Amino acid sequence: MSALLIGDQVPDFEAESTEGPIRFHEAIEGSWAVLFSHPKDFTPVCTTELGVTARLKDRFEARGVKVFGVSVDPIEDHRAWVGDIKDTQGTALNFPLIADPDRKIATAYGMIHPNADDTLTVRSLFVIGPDKKVKLKIEYPASTGRNFDEVIRVIDSLQLTAKHQVATPANWTSGKDVIIVPSVSDEDAKKKFPEGWKTLKPYLRIVPQPK
Ligand code: BEZ
Which of 4, 33, 46, 122 is labelled catalytic? Predict the structure, then answer.
């Protein structure tokens, strides 16, 4: 199957997880979601990633985002590893960790990059919109843990775009000025942003972040 790209609908699947059986499309229905793979249970970088993600639960929830981890390990390994995460990361796992021992999910989502490793996944992460389409896709090698603050920063940007037709500039963080998307005419922008904006170029219009 060809790679899953931004704008594509995510494949549905049924699988076991640490919180019971999951039908993915049903589980994410109408919600923002994050699905991220880790290469292997009982490995150091993966342990830290799951701990960090568990500690960020409130921030994901505040944005209406459901989080799911997945790896090609069996559910029994996931259950055994959960204790290590609690012991070492100062927090218990608080989101479903999906088992994919037959690599059905990893294959459908293009998480295995055979020239890196032909059986384990890389660190793939998808942010999925309420329309079940891919909004963000990132891929990291096994040796580099991801920055989940960056994932939340991108979710803030995606949700602003969805709600207010603004885009976010390089290195933007929540609260800073944003950009009126080029598809909004000046006439429509006057209605949406009655307080006005700064035009640096006709295509580069800066406005305070909408509330
Ligand atoms: C890790 O999580 O540390 C890891 C997993 C697979 C390969 C290399 C590192």
Answer: 46
